[in-house]
Amino acid sequence: MIRYVGRSVLALLLSALSFGCDKPGVTELQQEEKANQKAAQAQAAASEQAQNAQEAADNDIAGARASFEKTREDYRHSRTEDLNDLDKKIADLEAKTRTSMGKVRADQRADSTAIRAKRRAFARDLESLEIATAATWDEAKANLDKDWDTLRGAVDKAR
Q1: DSSP strands (E only) in 29-81
Q2: What's the pLDDT band for 11 if we cut at 50, 70, 90?
Q3: What whole-number distance in Å separates Cα of residue 53 and Cα of residue 85?
Q4: What is the Cα–Cα distance from 147 to 71, expressed in whole angstroms?
Q5: Average pLDDT of 140-156?
Q6: Which residue among 2, 96, 130, 150 is least enclosed by CB atoms within 10 Å?
């Protein structure tokens, strides 16, 4: 009888436990779905953040390029005006050469020839600024400034 009662109690206990529990795996399945939803939300947020960062970087790059183009064009325009003013001085020097005589005329012609060669080299370098990139800009500008100082100094010396 004790065996029978023990078995009955055990059966009753197991029955009560099985009614009190959820179906096996339902809780785990719900947890997995929640985790998948959180992961999908995190991926969407990260993707949006990356896209926003890329757009901001593209805008910064476009701004920097526009600024560089403006700087380069302003410099080229300024040097072109300087060259035009210098051309007037060179023309004045050549006019004086035509009215000079003897050794003075020979010296002025030699100076004029050297100045014209320097002017052509400067104009060629000025035109090459069109293809100067941001990476080569500082060096190209420094070389052009040096050439300009040499050319202007030669004209001032000849005057």
Answers
A1: none
A2: low
A3: 48
A4: 19
A5: 95
A6: 2
